[in-house]
Amino acid sequence: MRLPSLHAPEGGAESSAPAESAAAEAPASEDAAGQDSAADTGEAAATDISGSTIEVAVTYTGDQATTFQGLVDAFEEETGVTVNIAEYGQDYENTMKTRMASNELPDVFQTHGWSLLRYKEYLMDVSDQPWVSDYDDSALGVIQDDDGSIYVLMISELVNGTLVNTDLCEAAGVDPYSIHTWDDFTEACAKIKESGVTPIGSTSNPGLFANYAGTFVTYEGEMYEDGAAQLDGSWDWQDYKDSLIKYTVNWIDSGYFYEDILTLVDSDLTERYATGQSAFILGNDPSVLVTCLSLNPDANYIFLPSFASTDSGVEHVGIGEGDTFGIWKDTKNEAAAKAFLEYMARPEVAVAINNVTGKLSCLKSSMELDESYGLSVFTEMQEKCADCNIFYDNLWDRQYMPSGMWNIFGDASNMLFDDTSEKGQDEVIEYLLENYQDLYAVAQEG
């Protein structure tokens, strides 16, 4: 099985296979399920749109951009449409904000995690397109609006939950599939610690305070259901202190984290996890496991949800948009833009992109072709936890926090690991509250 490279934010991954080869081979496949949907329109559609020109804005750089260009070349040859690619790279977000302000957007553009929360008013509803029925259920929780509308083609997704070293769990007498609540998890950590292993492998990072926060203070049945207050700017964060902070302090004081966590970097984490120095990684996605397996192919891992805070709560799998393509609602080239999305939805095309980005396929037809390790552990979790109360939804901070809070969570994590006293906890809450209120006010003004 070929292992995809670890994906990096906004185009940092490198391909593990020649990009030109992936691009050249992708359009030629005739045996994938998605080919039928493209064939429905036949030569008539190609004739109707031949001679059209569309602009497509992307975040891709490097090998990703090369692969994408090869796929676009094949689309142009097949349809007679000219595609002008705007590669904005690291300047993508600022450039798109400027173009939104002037209401002059590309015909097709990537929404990079914000199809509903930022770009919805600029996007065309594409829920009537043939590829919509191909979505895995996990994808719909993040891209489907309350009224059922869908504004993007999402060919890949980011998944967020708990990474588990099953070898260490077995040695400590822990059945990871019996862990459903944070109390269960705490008990498992005690057994792992007794076996001589650090239970939780982590750096001090924003994800520790953000990625699974909703399982304590937001979702139905959890300790607190503060979602409405989080969204209207009135949240005072005391419930956060009484739940997530208290649990984290207990884990810190019990020695469940690395003692040198404040100085660790990501490469330290993956090296230690690969060599069996910790059993769990909280609030992360399976791409980390790909890197660990490249260092230690004999290790055994699984992926689980983030756990619930009560017996009646939900276990959460955070879903983030991976690679998504939406159509500007005011485009003058609607037919060509829809044909482009339909082409990108073909399983062999989607997988060619997902292979070079390292992200997980989320269209069922492309999932059948996707041999990535990340997808294998995710689908295994879906099968083995089918009877669990699992909730698939957007990444918590994207949905409930104002823009800019991510780095604030990282600072708060550092503060707590430096001082777990009651005073230290109060300082963390004060810091989070002040920044939350300031950023919420800025968002309201914008």
Give your account of this protein's structure:
Strand 1, helix 4 and strand 2 form a beta-alpha-beta unit. By secondary structure, the protein is an alpha/beta fold. Helix 1 packs parallel to helix 4, helix 1 packs antiparallel against helix 16 and helix 13 crosses helix 14. It has 21 helices and twelve strands. The radius of gyration is 22 Å and the shape is globular. The strands form two sheets. Strands 5, 6, 7, 8, 9, 11 and 12 form a seven-stranded mixed sheet that branches. Helices cover 46% and strands 13% of the residues.
Q: Structural class of the secondary structure composition?
A: alpha/beta
Largest sheet: 7 strands, mixed
State the share of residues found in helices, binned by percent.
40-55%
Low-confidence stretches: 1-45
Query: What is the total tally of β strands?
Result: 12
Cα shape: globular
Strand content: 5-15%
Mean pLDDT: 89
Evaluate the radius of gyration: 22 Å
- Beginning-to-end CA distance, first to last residue: 48 Å
Task: Please tally the helical runs, counting DSSP H or I stretches of 4 or more residues.
Answer: 21
Q: What attributes does this structure have?
A:
single chain; 446 residues; alpha/beta; seven-stranded mixed beta sheet; five-stranded mixed beta sheet; 12 strands; globular; disordered N terminus
